């Protein structure tokens, strides 16, 4: 059984790299953002709360994140292990995680803030079907229109320069101490997140001693 945490600033490719690991190694990908998005789409009470927070350009509170992750991990459907993406978010959560789970490693996707701004502010979302686009790496065939349903592409509510600046400050204030804690336990593998996704995945596996990646 393999248990990993993947960390990185918004836009660093955590979801992509987690999915590549999970699909190939039969791990369960536990993505905090996906859990919250499901609640938003299903119009749950939690979803309404998350929508208000995101619309204000803020991050979901640490206590709420911890409750959601704790509940998800208690389902114990991760027979071969898991990759947790988006947690822990502060030192207290990291200490809880280390006490509760015998993790095998922490993958830190390192991305400079200027590259984060370039990637995040280039994101677009289909207003009709929800398909994700990025004007840098995944442009639509027809400008401003979704390739799947033809819906209008819009900027996400929380993807403004001001909101991103707040999230970056919050990320560094809370996450840097978490990384220091994990580094003290010699868990952290830092990988440059500016490369091509297959190359990043190969590097992750080489550093962790995992089977090679063959796309």
From TrEMBL:
<feature type="binding site">
    <location>
        <position position="195"/>
    </location>
    <ligand>
        <name>ATP</name>
    </ligand>
</feature>
<comment type="pathway">
    <text>Purine metabolism; AMP biosynthesis via salvage pathway; AMP from ADP: step 1/1.</text>
</comment>
<feature type="binding site">
    <location>
        <position position="156"/>
    </location>
    <ligand>
        <name>AMP</name>
    </ligand>
</feature>
<dbReference type="GO" id="GO:0005524">
    <property type="term" value="F:ATP binding"/>
</dbReference>
<keyword id="KW-0862">Zinc</keyword>
<keyword id="KW-0808">Transferase</keyword>
<keyword id="KW-0479">Metal-binding</keyword>
<keyword id="KW-0547">Nucleotide-binding</keyword>
<comment type="similarity">
    <text>Belongs to the adenylate kinase family.</text>
</comment>
<feature type="binding site">
    <location>
        <begin position="58"/>
        <end position="60"/>
    </location>
    <ligand>
        <name>AMP</name>
    </ligand>
</feature>
<protein>
    <recommendedName>
        <fullName>Adenylate kinase</fullName>
        <ecNumber>2.7.4.3</ecNumber>
    </recommendedName>
</protein>
<feature type="binding site">
    <location>
        <position position="167"/>
    </location>
    <ligand>
        <name>AMP</name>
    </ligand>
</feature>
<dbReference type="GO" id="GO:0044209">
    <property type="term" value="P:AMP salvage"/>
</dbReference>
<feature type="binding site">
    <location>
        <position position="129"/>
    </location>
    <ligand>
        <name>Zn(2+)</name>
    </ligand>
</feature>
<dbReference type="GO" id="GO:0004017">
    <property type="term" value="F:AMP kinase activity"/>
</dbReference>
<keyword id="KW-0963">Cytoplasm</keyword>
<dbReference type="InterPro" id="IPR000850">
    <property type="entry name" value="Adenylat/UMP-CMP_kin"/>
</dbReference>
<keyword id="KW-0067">ATP-binding</keyword>
<feature type="binding site">
    <location>
        <position position="37"/>
    </location>
    <ligand>
        <name>AMP</name>
    </ligand>
</feature>
<dbReference type="InterPro" id="IPR033690">
    <property type="entry name" value="Adenylat_kinase_CS"/>
</dbReference>
<keyword id="KW-0418">Kinase</keyword>
<comment type="subunit">
    <text>Monomer.</text>
</comment>
<feature type="binding site">
    <location>
        <begin position="86"/>
        <end position="89"/>
    </location>
    <ligand>
        <name>AMP</name>
    </ligand>
</feature>
<feature type="binding site">
    <location>
        <position position="93"/>
    </location>
    <ligand>
        <name>AMP</name>
    </ligand>
</feature>
<feature type="binding site">
    <location>
        <position position="126"/>
    </location>
    <ligand>
        <name>Zn(2+)</name>
    </ligand>
</feature>
<feature type="domain" description="Adenylate kinase active site lid">
    <location>
        <begin position="123"/>
        <end position="158"/>
    </location>
</feature>
<feature type="region of interest" description="LID">
    <location>
        <begin position="122"/>
        <end position="159"/>
    </location>
</feature>
<dbReference type="Pfam" id="PF05191">
    <property type="entry name" value="ADK_lid"/>
</dbReference>
<dbReference type="Pfam" id="PF00406">
    <property type="entry name" value="ADK"/>
</dbReference>
<dbReference type="GO" id="GO:0005737">
    <property type="term" value="C:cytoplasm"/>
</dbReference>
<dbReference type="InterPro" id="IPR027417">
    <property type="entry name" value="P-loop_NTPase"/>
</dbReference>
<dbReference type="InterPro" id="IPR007862">
    <property type="entry name" value="Adenylate_kinase_lid-dom"/>
</dbReference>
<feature type="binding site">
    <location>
        <position position="149"/>
    </location>
    <ligand>
        <name>Zn(2+)</name>
    </ligand>
</feature>
<dbReference type="InterPro" id="IPR006259">
    <property type="entry name" value="Adenyl_kin_sub"/>
</dbReference>
<feature type="binding site">
    <location>
        <position position="146"/>
    </location>
    <ligand>
        <name>Zn(2+)</name>
    </ligand>
</feature>
<feature type="binding site">
    <location>
        <position position="123"/>
    </location>
    <ligand>
        <name>ATP</name>
    </ligand>
</feature>
<keyword id="KW-0545">Nucleotide biosynthesis</keyword>
<dbReference type="GO" id="GO:0008270">
    <property type="term" value="F:zinc ion binding"/>
</dbReference>
<feature type="region of interest" description="NMP">
    <location>
        <begin position="31"/>
        <end position="60"/>
    </location>
</feature>
<comment type="function">
    <text>Catalyzes the reversible transfer of the terminal phosphate group between ATP and AMP. Plays an important role in cellular energy homeostasis and in adenine nucleotide metabolism.</text>
</comment>
<feature type="binding site">
    <location>
        <begin position="11"/>
        <end position="16"/>
    </location>
    <ligand>
        <name>ATP</name>
    </ligand>
</feature>
